[in-house]
Structure formats: C-alpha cells, structure tokens
Design goal:
By secondary structure, the chain is of the alpha+beta class. It has 2 domains: 164 residues, Beta-lactamase (3-Layer(aba) Sandwich); 131 residues, DD-peptidase/beta-lactamase superfamily (Beta-lactamase, 3-Layer(aba) Sandwich). It contains 13 helices and 12 strands. The strands form 4 sheets. The chain has a 5-stranded antiparallel β-sheet with strand order 3-2-11-10-9, sandwiched between helices. Strands 4-6-5 form a 3-stranded antiparallel β-sheet. A two-stranded antiparallel ribbon has the order 1-12. Helix 4 packs across helix 7 and helix 5 packs parallel to helix 8. The protein is globular. Bound molecules: 6-diazenyl-5-OXO-L-norleucine. The site of 6-diazenyl-5-OXO-L-norleucine (DON) has 13 residues, from loops.
C-alpha cells in the first residue's frame, strides 16, 4: 500500500465530483468560501506526512475545536464534567434545543453545540474569555509545534452578530443552572474557539495524540491512554451529530466535523487524518470530506472494526 498513490487517487476522485454540497451560510463570513477547495493530510504513527490538494489552505475549524476544548475541560474537571454533559448520541441536529427541556439543561454530549457551550463554561473557570482562548491557542500550538495558528477575528465577529441559536441554548441552560458564568463570556469563548483557522497539515498534526494513545510524539504525554480512547469513542458515536451512525458505517473510524468543511479523523495506532472541503451535506458535515475518508478507508483497510493488518477492499 503506497499512501502517496492513494492520496493522489483521492484528490483526482474528489476533483471529478459534481455535487460539492452547500457552503454554510448561517455564519455570513463562511458563506463566501469557494466550494471548489479540497485538501487532505495524513500523519502516520511513524511521523510521516502525506498531503494532497489544498492541504495548505486555511479554513475555519468550527466544531472540530470541540475535541480540543473537551480535552482541556477534562483536564480541569475530570470525570465531574459528566455530571453536566452526557455521553450519548443525540440523534438531533448539532444546534438543536429540543432535548434540553426534557433533560433539564444537561446536553446529550460535548460535541453538539449545547454540550460544547457547557465545556466552554468549564474552560472559562472564572477568568475572562481571552484567558481561555489563549489557553486553547497555546494547546493547539503545542500539539502542532506551529506558533502561527490563530483566530480569524472576522469569523468570530460574524458568529457573535448572528449566533442567536447558541445564545438561546446558553440562556436556556443557564436557567437550569448548568451555565455558571455570564452567557456573553461563555459564548465569547465558544465563538472564538470555533473561529480558529488551521490547514489540513496543522489539523492532522494536532490529532496525533489521539492516534498515539494520548502521547505527543515529541513532548510526551498529553492525556492518559484511557482518556484518549474515550475521546475517540465520543468522536465515533457523536462526532457527526445525527449522521454519526452513517459516518461509522461508511468510514468506520472516529471523526469530528465542522461547518467550515473540515473533518479530523483518527485511526488509533496508525494515522491522524484531516480533510477539508467546504460544501456540506444536509447534516452540516463536509460532503466531499466524508466521501474522501470513505475512499481512504476502503483503499487502506483502516477501520476500528477490523484487525490491525491492512485489508483493503480494492
Ligand atoms: O456553533 C455553531 O453553530 C458553529 N460555531 C459550529 C457548528 C459546527 O461546526 C457544526 N459542525 N458540523
């Protein structure tokens, strides 16, 4: 199996696709992104990087930031976090409010918006948003070894001006006592974290600790092995919202999507993968990013449901 050939095949396969999905428009600043873009970067356990397409193009990581925010929040709150947010797939859209009333302000999981807003509340920890955001940026720069990672302020401002659903979710959870800080501060943290910009290479590097059982390849342990496995489990079961089952069926590895069109996918022990294509499917996940990962899994045989050896379908 030559990964360089497989990546070249995927880039050509994606270039030939006519239906590129629909770019997110509810955050106005994202609406102007060109749907033609596609990038892929794969870091393997031996440290090799194979990339193709627009792997150096920056994009808004949006909900992929929830993986890193969860990692930080677990570091602060430990298992007590699970008293405030669940670990079950929601079966609902990423921005849905319907379950929150019946479940008394406890979001189903940390990857739907409501859950990620609770995670931001934990990460605020009595400080100003700039402290929590600074911590997130430092974490990503440490994971990647790349100090150029930054926030796109125009995207953050755009979502701050139009994020009425998230404002509603935060206020609703505050009414149940599950948001402890003023909602403006919590959402300031959340919107800025979502507006972090990265390219596929950087994102694949940032995911290495989830491939390596919690270890940074150069810097040592980031989280315990069991915590890394649990984050991967949540990515598999909840990382694509109400399409998480379909993603597990088609791709078979943990993945977290964002409405900027990125997906971070992890093959434990083998690879950390980032794909990006800004057109989304009806569930708000990258249409071609998912297709690319499906083809990659077929060609490599990578799956959390198969033995460790390569057993490609074709
Ligand atoms: O809160 C929002 O709606 C966005 N900042 C993030 C949503 C998102 O990325 C959903 N993922 N596919």
């Amino acid at each position: 199996m030559d990964l360089t050939d497989i990546v070249a095949d995927i880039v050509a396969y994606i270039a030939a696709q006519e239906d590129r999905g629909t770019v997110a428009s509810y955050i106005p600043e994202l609406a102007s992104v060109d749907p033609a873009g596609f990038g892929i970067a794969i870091v393997t356990a031996d440290g090799a990087m194979v990339a193709g397409g627009d792997a150096d193009a920056g994009f808004s990581i949006q909900s992929i930031s929830k993986v890193f925010a969860l990692t930080l929040a677990l570091g602060k709150a430990g298992d007590q976090l699970w008293e405030r947010v669940g670990r079950e797939p929601s079966g609902n859209a990423f921005n849905s409010i319907v379950q929150l009333e019946q479940e008394r302000g406890i979001p189903r999981n940390p990857f739907i918006n409501a859950g990620a807003i609770v995670v931001s509340d934990v990460n605020l920890g009595g400080h100003q948003p700039r402290v929590a955001i600074g911590e997130m940026l430092r974490f990503l720069r440490y994971l990647t070894g790349d100090d150029s990672i930054a926030i796109n302020e125009a995207v953050a401002a755009s979502e701050t001006a139009t994020g009425f659903r998230n404002i509603a979710l935060a206020n609703y959870m505050r009414a149940f006592g599950n948001i402890h800080h003023p909602v403006e501060l919590v959402l300031g943290t959340y919107f800025h974290q979502c507006a972090i910009e990265m390219n596929c290479r950087q994102l694949a590097l940032a995911g290495r600790f989830l491939m390596l059982d919690g270890r940074h390849p150069d810097e040592g342990r980031v989280v315990s092995p069991s915590r890394a496995r649990r984050i991967n489990a949540l990515m598999l079961t909840c990382g694509h919202y109400d399409a998480s089952g379909d993603f597990a069926f088609r791709v078979g590895i943990p993945g977290k999507s964002g409405v900027g069109g990125g997906i971070l996918a992890i093959v434990p022990g083998r690879a950390s993968i980032a794909v990006w294509s800004p057109g989304l499917n009806e569930n708000g996940n990258s249409r071609l990013g998912t297709l690319a990962l499906e083809r990659l899994a077929q060609r490599t045989g990578w799956s959390v449901f198969s033995p460790a050896g390569d057993s490609a379908d074709q």
